Amino acid sequence: MTKSTSSMPCVLITGFAPFGGETVNPSWQAVQKLDESIIMKHRVCTLELSCEFNTSIKELHQAIESHNPKVVICIGQAGGRSEISIERIAINIDDARIKDNAGNQPIDIPIEKNGPDAYFTNLPIKRVLQALHNSNIPAAISNTAGTYVCNHVMYGLMHYINEHYTNMKGGFVHIPYLPSQAVHHHGAPSMSEETVINALKVIIAQALSNDVDVKIAAGTTH
Ligand code: PCA
Questions:
Q1: Do 155 and 56 meet the contact criterion of CB atoms below 8 Å apart?
Q2: What is the reported pLDDT for 5?
Q3: Helices 125-134, 193-209: crossing angle, 10 deg rounding
């Protein structure tokens, strides 16, 4: 008899819809492959977020309410970055270089009028970094998630956790273009879907197994 997985605790992993003229978003391409898989006795629930300011946060909050996950990790495309990019911080500002998929382009607008200037992720990011490197996956800590929809969603996630839950873990990870996208962006780095999927499994396992981070230097001097 197979045990029902519906009573298992879950982790919520999100990807984004394509944006900015792309036909795919590598985040959702990879994330959807993990749907309903089991990692460390946790069911993986997945969701594709709209690449739209405001709507994306509402979709995320609704999914958190219905799944009550232990861990929430949102994944997004960062075309031009070469590594798995583990975000440390989300800032309270929208400053869109291009319109979102609903045609909105907020410029210098706070995400939460009375919210703090920034939130740090509560994922053990250095452990995640170490584990990715041990798996031979290029990765780095990033100290900016930008000012577009990804930073907006990360801020919305951490704000929600802060207001509603005390022990839910949340964070954001940017990933490079897929090779099929990079061929249209001369000189841009890329990462295979297989490597990204492996990276996501490593990240989820680390988030589930560690509350306390390690102190290893991974900063930059510029
Ligand atoms: N990347 C964009 C938004 C959606 C995505 O996948 C960003 O970095 O803001």
A1: no
A2: 63
A3: 130
Contact of 18 with 51, CB cutoff 8 Å: yes
What was the pLDDT predicted at 1? 44
Give the predicted TM-score (pTM) of the model.
0.96
| Mean predicted confidence (pLDDT) in 24-32 | 98
Q: Ligand 1: distance of its center to the CA of 17 in Å?
A: 9
Which of 51, 52, 150, 152 is flagged as catalytic? Answer: 150
Indicate if ligand 1 lies below 6 Å from the C-beta of 146. Answer: yes
Atom of ligand 1 nearest to the CA of 149: 9
Confidence of residue 2 (pLDDT cuts 50, 70, 90): very low
Answer for the pair 97, 112: CB distance below 8 angstroms, yes or no. no
Structure tokens at 143: 């100290």
Instruction: List the catalytic residue out of 52, 59, 83, 87.
Output: 87
Rounded CA separation 90/30 (Å):
23
CA 132 to each of CA 41, 160, 210: distance values in angstroms, whole numbers, following the listed order:
21, 28, 14
Could you give the count of Cα atoms lying within 13 Å of 119 in the half-sphere of its Cβ?
A: 25
pLDDT at 220: 87
Which top CATH class is 3-209? alpha beta
